[in-house]
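I am still getting used to backbone structure tokens and would like to learn alongside you. Label the sequence line and the structure token line clearly, so we can match residues to local backbone shapes. Would you write everything just below, so we can both look at the same thing?
***
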Amino acid sequence: MPKMFLLFSHKLTDDQINDARKNLKVDEFIYLPKELQELWSNIPPDVDDIDNYLKPIKEFLEKHAKPNDYVLIQGDFGATYKMVNFAIDKNLIPIYSTTKRIAKDIYKDGKIITIRKFKHCRFRKYNPY
């Protein structure tokens, strides 16, 4: 059964875990080690080329992931683009989580407070262009 490697800055929700187990047949979820998670969550905005910055994350995937494992990739647009292409090149399956946004306005003391909730809908593959 495939594993799911997690390149994003949150914890999986119960809905995401259940969906991955049921529909993708994932049996194990692999979070990045703490130091790599810090890298992924803090992509520097002032660096022209992030290839060297992402190298430790790529090395982690090369060491631990096998073809047809899933990689949930969400975050900085440039880093996501590079890691999606890396995953495809390594015969991994890059995916992202789709959500339904529910917004509710609350009127209190002459002010409008907007509460947004995000509900997981499904995982979707990044397909090569």
